[in-house]
Amino acid sequence: MVAVKKVKQSTSLKKQQYIGNEFETLKKLAHPNIVKLIDLYHDNSHFYYITELCPGNNLLEDIMKGKKFSEPDLKIIIKQLFQAINYCHLHQICHRDIKPDNIVLVNNNEVKLIDFGTACKCNEEMTVARGTLMYMAPELLEKKRYDEKCDIWAIGIVMYTMITGVFPYREPKKLLKEQIVGRAIDWEALNNAKDVSSQCIEFILQLL
Ligand SMILES: Nc1ncnc2c1ncn2[C@@H]1O[C@H](COP(=O)(O)OP(=O)(O)OP(=O)(O)O)[C@@H](O)[C@H]1O
Ligand SMILES: [Mg+2]
Predict the structure, then answer these.
(1) Is residue 204 helix, strand or coil?
(2) How far apart (Å, rounded) are the C-alpha atoms in residues 117 and 77?
(3) Which is it for the CA torsion 202, 187, 145, 78, positive or negative?
(4) Torsion angle of alpha carbons 37, 116, 35, 62, nearest 10°?
């Protein structure tokens, strides 16, 4: 069985580039924790990505349902995510949109990283912020040149939400950019989380 992602064709050159980008990027990758691309079709109105089917919830669905991840489960999931991202970086690809909705869990704990629409070659066009604001590293918003380490920051935010069930910033959303740049992370919520070792918190501290 396969999955089909249907994307409306756009007259915008920029959007067309992103569609081609996802296809070209996924074509180069073959890793057990990255969704496998099978083919790409199009008609007059849409593109159709054919990928392997990854049956299971995405991580956001689990977090929204209030699922609490035990530390052993967290370890199993995050290790696979790092293996996928390490593989991407070794192939000079930065994902740039690591977030729970782009991580599918097959059989509850087998990671499949999906959605390479925002990916880019490392060291190319890495001056314009792309991705999802909540998971963006501060350097993306500081209008500086950034690198593939932005994926590592995003994994830190993913781990934080898996443990606490909430996002790490407390001020209203309109102040989100300022909070990210100011690294205004609510460490107390993480420290107060139940059944999380100090080594695990220390590890997240190193990612963020
Ligand atoms: N191969 C797959 N097998 C099973 N479910 C999938 C697969 N690909 C995507 N999904 C599900 O569909 C959702 C949306 O997929 P995806 O992230 O690729 O699209 P998108 O976010 O709409 O894309 P974009 O951000 O590029 O507009 C995912 O969060 C996941 O739940
Ligand atoms: Mg997505």
Answers:
(1) helix
(2) 22
(3) positive
(4) -150
DSSP 58: B
131 lines ligand 1 (CB under 6 A): no
pLDDT reading at 18 higher than 80: no
Residue 191 Cα, ligand 1 centroid: separation in angstroms? 32
Q: Where in the sequence of the chain do the CATH 1.10.510.10 domains occur?
A: 57-207
pLDDT at 16: 64
Query: Measured from the CB, is residue 118 less than 6 Å from ligand 1?
Result: no
Annotation says 97 is catalytic: yes
Q: 9: burial class by Cβ within 10 Å (0-12, 13-18, 19+)?
A: middle
Q: Kindly state the tokens that stand for 188.
A: 């107390």
Question: pTM of the prediction?
Answer: 0.93
Average pLDDT of the segment spanning 46-74: 92
At the second CATH level, the architecture of 57-207 is Orthogonal Bundle (1.10)
Structure tokens at 179: 């909070």
Whose Cα sits closest to atom 9 in ligand 1?
114
Average pLDDT, stretch 88-97? 96
One-letter amino acid of 95: H
Rounded CA-CA distance 81/151 in Å is 10
What's the topology of domain 2-52?
Answer: Phosphorylase Kinase; domain 1 (3.30.200)
Burial of 165 (0-12, 13-18, 19+ CB in 10 A): middle
